[in-house]
Predict the structure.
Amino acid sequence: MKSLNELFIKYRASVYRICLRYTRDKDAAEDLSQNIFIKVMENLKQFEGKSDPFTWIYRITVNECLHYLRRKTKETNLEDWTEHETLKIEGVDRAVETKIILQEIMSLFDSRTREIVFMAYFEGLQQDEMAKALGISERAINKRLAAFRERMIKIKLKMEHEVKQ
């Protein structure tokens, strides 16, 4: 069993990066990272070591990020945010516009699929690691990724068709 200090040194950058991707806010990511390692410290004796420590810490990280986003969503008036974001789009560069389009596309998928896509494409986790972290089968991971890719192809074709018209 590794000590808290060893886990912190090894995984702090990964935890912060995951938090930053979920929150898109450096301060929130930093606060969440600290809270996550407090939870790790509080629960370290309960970790049985049957899986890789990163799988366990990753699950805590994702749960904390999702909890943060749920709290934040309740605090944010969606209509005000949408209007504000629409005004920001006017005159921004292509990268920001692409990011917003990607967020809109990702909102078409359920939260579990978004989580799997994030883990696969942004975190580079293997299907067995995702299955352990999420507590579902590798087959379920594979099915969701295949359905995601299939739907993305349809979205791409639809967007290309709309551009031609």
The helical segments are 4-23, 26-43, 53-75, 78-89, 94-106, 111-122, 127-134, 138-164. The radius of gyration is 18 Å.
